[in-house]
Amino acid sequence: MVTDQVIIVEGRQDKLKLQPILDEYVEIICTNGTFSRNRIEQMLEPFECCEFYAFFDEDEMGKKHRKLFNSVYPESNHLYTRSVYGGVEQTPRKHLARVLQDAGFAVKRGFLLSKG
């Protein structure tokens, strides 16, 4: 499949948490804990024409990943979970759906929070 948007997450569980929420094909790439400038560039080289979205945990390691990623791809978009959840994997799917929808992704209706 072809995509013009790529979401970068820290681990496989983060990817598995996001995939069922999306109602469109989006490439989701896991850093799997190995994170350096060179590694980022190698991972994302096949997707140079895509728009990047970094969705890292709200812990110390996630903040380090976000800072490094931003230095390599300053034009990238950053998605955030609430610090109370700690990480993407622990975030309720309804909240993740809202974050993704607010960023312009198509999400499945069943995951959206009610407005009331």
TrEMBL record:
GO MF: ribonuclease M5 activity
Coiled coil: none
Domain of life: Bacteria
BP term (GO), one: rRNA processing
Protein's name according to its UniProt entry: Ribonuclease M5
Organism (species): Kurthia zopfii
Source taxonomy: Bacteria, Bacillati, Bacillota, Bacilli, Bacillales
